[in-house]
Design brief:
One of its GO terms (molecular function) is DNA binding. Keywords: DNA-binding. By secondary structure, this protein is α+β, with helices and mostly antiparallel strands. It has 3 domains: about 80 residues, Orthogonal Bundle (434 Repressor (Amino-terminal Domain)), CATH 1.10.260.40; about 45 residues, no CATH class; about 200 residues, no CATH class. It has 16 helices and 4 strands. A 4-stranded mixed sheet has the order 1-3-2-4, sandwiched between helices. A hairpin with a 2-residue loop joins strand 2 and strand 3. The longest helix is centred in the N-terminal third of the chain and has 25 residues. The relative contact order is 0.07.
């Protein structure tokens, strides 16, 4: 969720402490030479402060107190504000040279989803994007993304949409940090997955809080982040601050694919190391993905039970599918999806037994 905007006055011009000092001298009818005499500073030092060539140091500020009738912190604050404004204006000029960087991100979609605040000022929009990523400049985005690429497999797949995918991952990271998790415990997580399997028969308003709570109690944060256009990413697994993170996009709307994706990511958590980042998309095949697929497949529908069902099923009617799903305690659509995947049922058949989810119009974090 985007942070609330704070109104802050940031001048687009500079007023140096020397200019203020010169105004005080004029008001007092005091020359630079006289101020030098009264403070014990050299005339050259006073002149260089007025011309902006030298700063007002804390020692100088203290010496200005009595002759000019203003406390040292007044002069110190002038100098501090001046230096800060000077750096900020220089930063503004530098950022203005990076405005084209905005065009590489799906900014409109990020605004629509509430990840960043809308602004007609491109510079403010650029600053909002930098704040979203928690980086100082676009150069740092390159450094962070390249650093993360070391942990990504099949990185060539992401080159065309690296910015959008990085935004999706960053939003997941932000949401995951908000979830209070217990230390990771693989035994507790396996037990939680047993309970979560039964949640496949529940509606989103029931299974989502239960799913998130059960996983958090065993050290895994589950976050739901809407997909961004053209990325084709439907899931990701990684470790952040010692806790596992499963990120789901609802790219596939049917409940069979949603739950298969979740248990696939859970397989990565249980079977693979804490250093890799697994990003799921169509066409990704390697040994670790096959292992995660096998875990999800067998966890949802145990092989022995499936074999017994297939021995009795006529490969046509739906009633036995419904009965089998009820017997093993999972959603009927999951059985249909498995049969379709294994080419035991046409993809045009049995879809009425599936449940289809969509993001709520009220909040992009809610599924219905």
């Amino acid at each position: 969720m985007a942070k609330a905007q704070i109104n802050e006055y940031l001048p687009d011009y500079l007023t140096s402490p020397g200019e203020v000092l010169e105004d005080y001298l004029d008001a007092y009818g005091m020359t630079q030479a006289e101020l030098a005499l009264r403070t014990g500073l050299s005339k050259k030092t006073i002149n260089e402060i007025i011309k902006g060539k030298s700063p007002i140091t804390p020692e100088t500020a203290l010496k200005f107190e009595r002759p000019l009738g203003r406390p040292a912190h007044f002069w110190n604050n002038l100098e501090r504000q001046y230096q800060e404004d000077k750096v900020r204006l220089a930063e503004k000029e530098r950022l203005e040279s990076h405005l084209d960087w905005l065009n590489r991100f799906p900014v409109k979609d990020m605004i629509r989803l509430g990840w960043i605040l809308e602004s007609k000022d491109k510079l403010k929009l650029l600053e909002a994007l930098l704040n979203f990523f928690g980086i100082a400049s676009p150069e740092q985005w390159k450094d962070v993304w390249l650093q993360h690429q070391v942990a990504y497999r099949q990185t060539n797949r992401f080159e065309a949409h690296a910015e959008a995918i990085s935004a999706w991952l960053r939003q997941g990271e932000t949401q995951a940090r908000e979830i209070d998790c217990q230390p990771f415990d693989s035994k507790k997580f396996r037990a939680a997955l047993n309970n979560i399997r039964g949640l496949t028969r529940q509606a989103p308003e029931v299974f989502i809080p239960a799913l998130v709570g059960l996983c958090a109690s065993s050290g895994v944060a589950v976050v739901f982040v809407p997909e961004l256009p053209k990325t084709g990413v439907f899931g990701a697994t990684r470790w952040i601050s010692g806790k596992g993170v499963i990120q789901l996009s609802l790219y596939y709307k049917s409940n069979d694919l949603f739950w298969f994706t979740f248990f696939h990511e859970a397989g990565h958590i249980l079977k693979h190391g804490h250093k890799d980042i697994f990003i799921e998309y169509d066409g990704l095949i390697d040994e670790q993905e096959k292992e995660a697929d096998a875990y999800a497949r067998d966890k949802l529908i145990p092989p022995q039970q499936l074999r017994k069902f297939l021995e009795r099923w006529d490969y046509r009617t739906h009633a036995p599918i419904e009965k089998f799903a009820d017997q093993i305690g999972i959603a009927r659509g999951i059985v249909v999806g498995r049969l379709q995947h294994d080419n035991l049922m046409p993809h045009t058949h049995g879809n009425k037994l599936k449940v289809f989810f969509r993001w709520s119009d009220e909040t992009p974090k809610k599924i219905q």
